[in-house]
Amino acid sequence: MLCKDKIISIFCLIDDILQGIEHKEDKRRQVSDSEIILTAIVSSTSFYGNHSSAIRFMKQYGFIPNMLDKSRFNRRIHKVGKLLCELFEIVSSYFKSFCCEMQYIIDSFPVAICNNMRILNCKIVKDKKWRGYTASMRNYFYGVKVQLVTTKDGIPIAFHFTPGKTADAKALGKIINKLPAEASIYGDSAYLDYGLEDFAREQKCIFLKIQKKSNSKRIDTLEQKKEKLKMRKRIETTISDIKKLFPRTIHAVTLEGFLIKLTLFVFGLQLNKSIN
């Protein structure tokens, strides 16, 4: 549960950013986009994504006494879906630019849209590309993969959604464009791609420090193996922290709504870890 001071701090940060980017909205509104986004963040970090509980909380404790009902709130959240990603990127730029963060970690985790036995009845997505396999858990799932990048301290600074069947190495190519020059990014062997590794180093000046397989042509030293393993444990902790925010099942009517809820879980953890 977010404390009062942190809720106020998050609101001030969001509101200042929206003013800084000259975000326009209808002046006749009684509830601003900043208040809508704040309530959504509170929902994702304190109420397992339950909007009704967050709305009641914000009203009851006087944070936003005139907060909208659930139906109107959901419509407003969908309208600011792209804005959520923009806000996340702006907060991330603080770590990449002002903090001069140069070490990053990437990993993915699956989020099922529905149970395997209900795939045929799933209305949100319908395609084989959404059926993926999790090697660490040795099971199949039907949903999306969240490609997550964090700082060495475990703060999310980039993410990307892919269909469950998409290989991790393909997603890495899109992620490296979000990193500053001379940065290093650590990942497990699923991201191993020698061509991309050479391209990133030569064209982007970004160093891919991916764990090598036992039969790899480029072998890691014992010291390199220890370094990569140590960094990977940090992002595993962050992924665990994100999953703790999830409800038993993430309810959504559309794929867009499902991805907005996932975005809020990642964004909520970023703000919670960033603001002291």
TrEMBL record:
It comes from the Bacteria. Residues 104-257 form the Transposase IS4-like domain. Pfam families: DDE_Tnp_1 (PF01609). InterPro entries: Transposase_11 (IPR002559). It comes from Flavobacterium magnesitis. This is IS982 family transposase.
